[in-house]
Amino acid sequence: xxxxxTRGLRAVVACVAVACTTLLVACGGGAGNEATQVAAVxxxxxxxxxxxxxxxxxxxxAAWQTSRHAQSWKSETFRVASDxxxxxxxxxxxxxxxxQKTGVANEPLVRDGYRSDGVTCxxxxxxxxxxxxxxxxxxxxxxxxxxxxQDDSYSTAAVCASCHGHDAEFNQYxxxxxxxxxxxxxxxxxxxxxxxxxxLADTEVDKPLRWVGDHSFPGSHDEEYLKTAxxxxxxxxxxxxxxxxxxxxxxxxxxxxxxxAVVDISVDGVEVGRLEYSFENENQLESGETVxxxxxxxxxxxxxxxxxxxxxxxxxxxxxGLVQSDVGTVIDxxxxxx
Length: 338
Ligand code: HEC
Ligand code: HEC
Ligand code: HEC
Ligand code: HEC
Ligand code: HEC
Prior knowledge:
This protein has 338 residues and is of the alpha+beta class. It has 14 helices and 12 strands. It has 2 domains: 7-213, no CATH class; 223-337, Sandwich (Immunoglobulin-like).
C-alpha cells in the first residue's frame, strides 16, 4: 500500500527553511520519524520549492539545473525576444503552471509567481488536483514524502507536446509525429533523456536501481549532442560534385526558430556554394530528409570540402533584438580528393 502521509515532506520543507543540516541528513537518510516532530510548514507556492525536491532527488536536480528548462525564463534571449516579458503570449511555456492543470499535451497556463525558476520539477510532475504533493511519473514508486501516480504518458511524446507542440516556431512534436520516429512511436525521451541505472531518490539507498532519464535534456545547447544532428557527404557523379546533407534528428532540422544550419562548399579553397536552412527561411529539413546539391566541376579541380555549421541567435550589441551569432558549431565536415 502507498504511504499517504505527507508530513515527512512538510518537515523537510521546514528543515530546509531553517537550514538545519543535521535534521536534513536525519530525514534525508530515511529516518523520517525525527523529522515529523518539526511543525508542518506549507510552502507559499509549490513552484518555489525546487530545493525541497533537491534534498532527496539530488542527482536529478543537479542535471536539471544544467538544462535549458532551468533557463527558460532567465535566458537573455528570451528576455529580449519577449520584449522584457511584455509579450504575454510568450509566457505560458517559459513560466508554465503545472501541465497536469490543463492536461498532458495541452498548452499550459502561465503561472503567477516564481517565474524565474522556469520549467521546474513541479511543472512537469505535480498532480494539479491534489492538495498534497502527489507526483506523476513512469513508475509504481513508493515515497514517504509524497504520493506517486504511475502515469504511462511520461514515457511518451505527449508529455513534451504540452510545450513543444503548439507554437510553429518551437513545434518539434508535429514534425516528429509526421516523420519516421513518430510513425514508430520512438519517443522524444529516447533521444533527449537517455537512461542510466540509478536510484530515483539518492536518499533511498536500499531501493532497487531503476532506469532514470537524464534531466539535463541534451539538445542543441550540448555541443557533443548537437553533432549527432546531421551529416554531410561528398561524391562525384557525371563530372559534378554532389553534396548530400542528411537530417538525423527526430524532427525537422534545425529543430526550432532562432537557429540556422549553413552548408559551405569549397573547391581548392575557393567557396563555390553556401546554403542556409532555418525556420526563418521556411526551409527546415524534415525528419530523415536528405537534400543534395550539385556543383559542376572545372577541369583540374583537385580537392572539395563541405562543412555544416549550426549558428544560434544571440542578443545584439545594443540589447534590443536577436542576431545570428558569428560563432557556430561545426556539426560535420567532409573532404574529397577529386
Ligand atoms: C524526503 C525525500 C523526497 C522529497 C523531498 C521528494 N521526493 Fe520524490 N521520491 C522520493 C522517493 C523515496 C521516491 C521513490 C523512490 C523509489 O521508489 O526508488 C520518489 C519518487 C519520485 C518520483 C517518481 C514517481 C513515479 O511514479 O515514477 C517523482 C516524479 C518524484 N519523486 C518527484 C519529486 C518532486 C517533483 C519533488 C519536489 C516537489 C520530490 N519528488 C520531493 C523521495 C522524495
Ligand atoms: C507553446 C509554448 C511556447 C510559447 C507560447 C513560446 N515559446 Fe519560446 N520556446 C518554446 C520551446 C519549447 C522552446 C525550445 C525549443 C526551441 O528552441 O525550438 C523555446 C525557445 C525559445 C527561445 C530560444 C532560447 C535560446 O536562445 O536557446 C526563444 C528566444 C524564445 N523561445 C522566445 C519566445 C518568444 C519571444 C515567444 C513569444 C512570441 C515565445 N518564445 C513563446 C516554447 C514556447
Ligand atoms: C512545461 C513546458 C515544457 C515541457 C512539458 C517540456 N519542455 Fe522542453 N523546453 C521548454 C522550453 C520553454 C524550452 C526552452 C528553454 C530556453 O532555451 O529558453 C525547452 C527546451 C528544451 C530542450 C533544449 C533545447 C536546446 O536548445 O538545447 C530540449 C532538448 C527539450 N526542451 C526537450 C523536452 C522533452 C524531451 C520534453 C518531454 C519529456 C520536454 N522538453 C517537455 C518547455 C517545456
Ligand atoms: C520538462 C519536464 C520535466 C521536468 C522539468 C522534470 N522532469 Fe522528471 N521526468 C520527466 C519525464 C518525461 C520522466 C520520464 C522519463 C522516462 O520515462 O525516461 C521523468 C522522470 C522522473 C523520475 C523517475 C525516474 C525516471 O527518470 O524515469 C523522477 C524521480 C523525476 N523525474 C524527478 C524529477 C525532479 C526531482 C525534477 C526537478 C529537479 C524533475 N523530475 C524535472 C519530465 C520532467
Ligand atoms: C532520433 C533522436 C531524436 C528524437 C526522437 C527527438 N529529437 Fe529532438 N533533437 C535531436 C537532435 C540530434 C537535436 C539537435 C539538432 C537541432 O537542434 O536541430 C534535437 C534538437 C531538439 C531541440 C532543440 C531545438 C533547437 O532549436 O534548439 C528540442 C527542443 C527538441 N529536440 C525536442 C524534441 C521533442 C519534443 C521530441 C519529441 C516530439 C524530440 N525532440 C525527438 C534528436 C531527437
